[in-house]
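Bug #77: duplicate submission created two jobs. Keeping one. Sequence:
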Amino acid sequence: MLAELQDDFPLVERPYAELARRLSLRESDVLKITRGLLAKGLIRRIGPVIDPAKSGRVSTLVAARVPPRRIGQVARIVNALAEVSHNYLRKPHAGRCPFNMWFTLSAGSRGELGRLRRKIAEQARVELVEFPATRMFKIKVQFDLAGDD
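Kept job's structure:
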């Protein structure tokens, strides 16, 4: 189910009915499983990923140094922003890179990006570092949760 949602979400009038047909399930089962994945936090949203540059926006990668006990609190602050499209927790590399939360931030201008970054740093009380993109490369990342719905 997760692979279908990530990789080949149908762009039709009733996408969940189409997924049900592909997976030999009922549409209600597809909806129930999808809601469960959402409730577990395994998916954050279902929607298009729009290339900021092609839509007249700018984006940047932001890294945060978040104490382990505050990860949930900081994630809620970051994830509440519509301007955040991806947010990942990564294990910090001792001595090399102490940053453990990475997210993509987009806005209408560089100035707006700066204001959003400062707002996040202030609200979350964490150190942020920005890694602005100079070139864009898209890779396909697909999560497989063998044994789960």
